[in-house]
Design the sequence.
């Protein structure tokens, strides 16, 4: 009669809205311009990376400054699959996820020996080492990088169908495919994280976040938890990296392992939106994109502003914009809190 | 013979890295603050010195002397105005704030000075060399190394023989108890960051005189500095020098084998030390 549930009205409304939004997103290429599809691709991939970093730092307490290692290795694995093994780029993206997972194992072995700040620096150094090693890989262009071969890009799985469906050119069809895959990925990642947080693992994560010692005393294996979070985030970051570079079709170590693009921006998105919530990165990526569009003509002023905003948010609203909204309104679009529901208890005091 | 030469170059290069790292080591040791903007602050100071040289026609040494109090004030204000507010048990807020500062500073410098690479003119010192019998070394690298040692001796004297140093050590060990004894940790932190910025100015002087710099090079310098600090161990300044030398020697030996391996070899040395000694070689403070 009584049950434990995380369901709330706001949660149900959000879920319905998201289904509608995703369906609209799927149909969007029919009416949207190529530029808009590219912008949305950018937003969706950054959102995916932000959700993953948020899972690591906001829920898992693993403040990594080296996520670009997984973006880069995923992208390079995808290129290797296409150029060396002749795979179709879409399937080669999966190779990117695998590469992220494989790299994460030695990284975790090493980095988990380090505490706090040492962990952050350690992950950064590993990302640098990976970049420098990849730059030695001459078949994939060494330090200058390479492009996807023409026959591979013109032959991507499903682009023919998209060309026929929307009667667009080949390059535009590739953008649409990449956009759909990004949409799929962001739904899977966000949905997956939400499911994770609602599961036993999520309960354990919340317990560790709130009080690590108390969590351990009731039998939560914190070490295994960290491994799980780190490996999941690495594999998904690898997939995202592979997808991003399938769309650009050109790669270089500096671009694929860029600490600014794949870690600094991502951290800003999470911080500005609100760390430790699923809503935060969504809000953050919107703010990030608006700023980017508004200040696009001012070159480096844009990044300067972003840096200053991150400082201001951290000083005056450490829980980010969503933290402010949530504290005022009590709104949780992705409820994870467990509540007891059922008929009112009569009698007693 | 060539190996002796490589070793000497590596040790001297380590002096430069120790200079980059000394300020960081001080701040990290006292307040466990990971200042991700440290590299960009070095570049900022280098531009400050360069402005003194080009606009006021000063010699680089005088320009650096003038830049020091300015940088001290900047460090003090930064600590009081921003960093003190985010320091706490959670390392994330200060990390994020200094990350923001790093990006803001880098792009501010880019806007002010363009992406052109610059250099602080060092006159006859550039390219001068000294024959030490077994090896011939550049005067500038030697001067850098001697300065690094001087800075570390001075900081150690401050740390172990003055009232301020006692307050530093007490705050480093236990800020709350130090507070009970009448020390105000926030003021101590501001002093520490101010002093770190003076060291940053010295590092900037050598950075600018030895090689070209541009607004984007901060993070790469930061990573070497961090490696030196972590290898050396929390709170040990001589350890930081040892860390710098290890990175420097690894880099020159890597470069001697294959020029492309220079930076990689430094990082691998760091990873190797971390695997064997996760807390560094000579940790003074307990984290």
Sequence:
């Amino acid at each position: 009669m009584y049950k434990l549930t995380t369901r709330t009205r706001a949660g149900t409304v959000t879920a319905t809205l998201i289904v509608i939004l995703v369906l609209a997103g799927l149909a969007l290429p029919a009416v949207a311009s190529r530029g808009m599809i590219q912008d949305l691709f950018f937003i969706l991939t950054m959102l995916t990376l932000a959700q993953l970093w948020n899972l690591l730092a906001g829920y898992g307490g693993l403040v990594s400054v080296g996520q670009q290692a997984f973006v880069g290795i995923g992208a390079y694995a995808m290129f290797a699959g296409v150029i060396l093994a002749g795979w179709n780029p879409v399937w080669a993206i999966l190779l990117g996820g695998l590469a992220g997972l494989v790299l994460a194992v030695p990284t975790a072995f090493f980095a988990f020996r380090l505490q706090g700040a040492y962990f952050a620096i350690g992950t950064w150094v590993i990302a640098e080492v990976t970049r420098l090693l990849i730059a030695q890989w001459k078949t994939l262009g060494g330090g200058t990088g390479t492009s996807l071969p023409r026959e591979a890009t013109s032959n991507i799985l499903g682009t023919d169908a998209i060309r026929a469906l929307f009667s667009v050119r080949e390059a535009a069809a590739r953008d649409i495919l990449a956009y759909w895959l990004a949409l799929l990925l962001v739904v899977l990642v966000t949905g997956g994280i939400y499911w994770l947080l609602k599961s036993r693992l999520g309960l354990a994560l919340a317990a560790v976040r709130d009080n690590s010692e108390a969590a351990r005393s009731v039998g939560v294996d914190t070490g295994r938890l960290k491994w799980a979070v780190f490996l999941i985030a690495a594999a998904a970051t690898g997939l995202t990296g592979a997808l991003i570079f399938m769309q650009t079709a050109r790669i270089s170590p500096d671009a694929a392992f860029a600490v600014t693009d794949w870690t600094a921006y991502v951290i800003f998105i999470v911080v500005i939106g609100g760390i430790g919530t699923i809503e935060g990165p969504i809000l953050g990526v919107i703010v990030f994109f608006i700023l980017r569009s508004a200040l696009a003509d001012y070159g480096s002023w844009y990044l300067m502003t972003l840096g200053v905003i991150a400082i201001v948010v951290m000083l005056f609203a450490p829980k980010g914009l969503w933290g402010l909204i949530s504290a005022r309104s009590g709104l949780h679009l992705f409820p994870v809190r467990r509540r007891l529901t059922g008929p009112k208890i009569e009698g007693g005091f | 013979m060539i190996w002796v030469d490589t070793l000497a170059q590596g040790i001297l290069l380590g002096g430069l890295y120790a200079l980059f790292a000394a300020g960081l080591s001080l701040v990290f040791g006292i307040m466990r603050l990971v200042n991700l903007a440290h590299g960009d602050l070095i570049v900022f100071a280098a531009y400050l010195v360069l402005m003194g040289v080009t606009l006021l026609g000063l010699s680089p040494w005088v320009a650096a002397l003038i830049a020091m109090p300015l940088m001290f004030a900047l460090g003090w204000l930064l600590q009081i105005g921003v960093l003190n507010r985010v320091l706490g048990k959670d390392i994330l807020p200060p990390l994020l704030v200094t990350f923001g500062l790093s990006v803001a500073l880098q792009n501010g410098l880019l806007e002010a000075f363009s992406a052109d690479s610059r250099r602080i003119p060092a006159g006859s010192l550039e390219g001068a060399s000294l024959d030490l019998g077994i090896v011939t070394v550049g005067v500038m690298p030697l001067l850098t190394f001697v300065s690094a040692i001087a800075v570390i001796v001075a900081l150690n004297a401050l740390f172990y023989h003055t009232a301020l140093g006692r307050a530093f050590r007490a705050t480093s060990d236990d800020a709350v108890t130090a507070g009970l004894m009448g020390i105000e940790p926030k003021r101590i932190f501001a002093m520490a960051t101010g002093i770190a910025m003076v060291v940053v100015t010295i590092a900037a002087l050598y950075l600018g005189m030895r090689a070209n710099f541009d607004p984007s090079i901060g993070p790469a310098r930061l990573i070497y500095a961090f490696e030196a600090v972590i290898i050396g161990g929390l709170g040990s300044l001589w350890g930081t020098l040892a860390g710098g030398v290890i990175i420097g020697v690894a880099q020159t030996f890597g470069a001697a084998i294959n020029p492309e391996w220079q930076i990689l070899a430094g990082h691998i040395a760091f990873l190797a030390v971390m695997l064997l000694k996760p807390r560094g070689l000579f940790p003074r403070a307990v984290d």
Observations:
- The longest strand of chain A covers residues 3-5.
- Chain A has a mean pLDDT of 88.
- Chain A has two domains: 25-257, 260-333.
